[in-house]
């Protein structure tokens, strides 16, 4: 394994290796899903739909061309759960765990791969970080599975404890990894009035999308109980923007739908519908209602929220919350006539500002290109709002849909698959695929002013 990694590292960059690894996992998942043991008797699954499901599973998106509950057997759903883990926790993290279980040492080249896959800036403490990350993720999923399993059985949703814990495990894993898959057949529409299931689901979605570095820092804060504990700037910006997005999204949905979809709803129904839809747009994909029934302005707001996505180093996609935060801070800084972007009494590095605009611009170009191409390929078979919503959901790896996924053409599904894959690996990884190394400029051209704006 070491020699193979070393030989391969001389031929391709670490980013290219990671992307190829995710592509390999998708291929393996596809092969497993098309096996007869993965499909229920009488159900049909084409190769393109199996590939679409595999991409959606590994990218933890949740868009499906077939009904998961009606198509896949118990074995097939476990294959999906494993793909959620690869996509949500990270392929290098799971590889590291396997390596540690086998008692092997983690080489420097492998540590570099972990660093890139987990979006870290240095090599120190990576193995300990991965070990903590894995146990934290598996612990949260196990706790969620136990809570759901006991609740489902006590409430009489299922006849046996085995069935209750099976459904509880799948829903817990799908929620924490923000995969957005369900085995009920209608997402969480059956629990539209069950606020306990919704609350635990929202909590799992939140913990998965807030980002591993934030969870680890909060754990350190609780463990040390040091009043002088200082959170990093990353954690402060991420947490603040994440909460702001949830509140702003919920308020927008509540206001826009107050006299529309919410017209005949009680105050608590309005509250949970607004809050759940705001949180699930971070990258969750689960829904307690048909989002196609929303007012078009609300659907557009949801599309924007999905485009922004979750936090960096999390299970979600999109341009990420910190990117959007730095964009807003930079605009404010420029409007105030300042030259340095500041937040929480810290200055943001110019390189991070530059990255934010690169990620935002590239993401916007990809989404616009995806919308235009998909609408053209499908020959305007669907409304433009449906296409915008579908593309934004794929790029943000959210998984919400207005019901057009299964009716897409083969080319249309390929477009959505490409967007889901990019959403999982991230914009910077996509751009780094074409980078062969850091080139230093040996000379500079004369600078000249250009009129802007």
From TrEMBL:
Q: What is this protein called?
A: Ktr system potassium uptake protein D
One protein family per Pfam: TrkH
Record carries keyword Zinc: no
Subcellular localization(s) per the UniProt record? Cell membrane
> One biological process GO term for this chain?
metal ion transport
Name a GO CC annotation attached to this entry: plasma membrane
For this UniProt entry, which segments traverse the membrane?
A: 12-35, 47-66, 78-102, 123-152, 195-216, 237-256, 315-335, 356-377, 414-434
Q: Which species does this protein come from?
A: Xylanibacillus composti
Under the GO molecular function aspect, what terms does this record hold?
Answer: monoatomic cation transmembrane transporter activity
Write out the coiled-coil annotation as residue ranges: none
The primary location reported for this protein is: membrane
Q: How does it sit in the membrane?
A: Multi-pass membrane protein
| Keywords, alphabetical | Cell membrane, Ion transport, Membrane, Transmembrane, Transmembrane helix, Transport
């Amino acid at each position: 394994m070491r020699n193979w990694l070393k030989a391969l590292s001389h031929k391709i960059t670490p980013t290219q290796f990671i992307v190829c690894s995710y592509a390999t996992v998708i291929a393996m998942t596809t092969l497993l899903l098309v096996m007869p043991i993965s499909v229920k008797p009488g159900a049909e699954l084409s190769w393109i739909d199996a590939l679409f499901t595999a991409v959606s599973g590994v990218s933890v998106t949740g868009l499906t061309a077939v009904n998961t509950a009606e198509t896949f057997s118990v074995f097939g759903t476990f294959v999906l759960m494993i793909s959620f883990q690869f996509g949500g926790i990270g392929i290098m993290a799971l590889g590291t765990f396997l390596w540690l279980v086998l008692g092997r040492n983690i080489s420097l080249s492998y540590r570099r791969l972990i660093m890139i896959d987990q979006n870290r800036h240095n090599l120190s403490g990576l193995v300990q970080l991965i070990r903590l990350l894995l146990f934290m993720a598996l612990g949260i999923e196990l706790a969620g599975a136990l809570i759901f399993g006991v609740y489902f059985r006590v409430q009489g949703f299922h006849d046996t404890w085995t069935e209750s814990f099976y459904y509880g495990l799948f829903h817990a894993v799908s929620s924490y990894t923000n995969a957005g898959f369900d085995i009920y057949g209608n997402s969480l529409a059956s629990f539209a009035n069950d606020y306990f299931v919704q609350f635990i689901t929202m909590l799992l979605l939140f913990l998965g999308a807030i980002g591993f570095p934030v969870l680890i820092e909060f754990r350190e804060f609780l463990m040390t109980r040091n009043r002088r504990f200082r959170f990093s700037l990353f954690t402060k910006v991420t947490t603040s923007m994440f909460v702001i997005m949830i509140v702003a999204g919920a308020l927008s949905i509540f206001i826009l739908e107050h006299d529309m979809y919410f017209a005949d709803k009680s105050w608590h129904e309005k509250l949970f519908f607004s809050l759940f839809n705001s949180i699930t747009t971070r990258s969750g994909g689960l829904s307690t209602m048909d989002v196609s029934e929303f007012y078009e302005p609300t659907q557009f707001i949801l599309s924007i929220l999905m485009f922004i996505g979750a936090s960096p180093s999390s299970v979600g996609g999109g341009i990420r919350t910190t990117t959007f935060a730095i964009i807003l801070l930079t605009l404010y800084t420029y409007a105030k006539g300042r030259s340095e972007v500041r937040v929480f009494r810290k200055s943001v590095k110019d390189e991070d500002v530059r990255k934010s605009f690169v990620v935002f611009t590239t993401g916007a170009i990809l989404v616009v290109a995806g919308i235009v191409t998909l609408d053209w390929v499908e020959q305007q078979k669907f409304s433009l709002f449906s296409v915008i919503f579908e593309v934004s959901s794929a790029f943000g790896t959210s998984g919400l849909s207005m019901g057009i996924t299964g009716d897409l053409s083969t080319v249309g599904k390929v477009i959505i698959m490409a967007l889901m894959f990019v959403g999982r690996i991230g914009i910077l990884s996509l751009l780094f695929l074409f980078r062969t190394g850091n080139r230093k400029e040996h000379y500079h051209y004369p600078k000249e002013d250009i009129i802007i704006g």
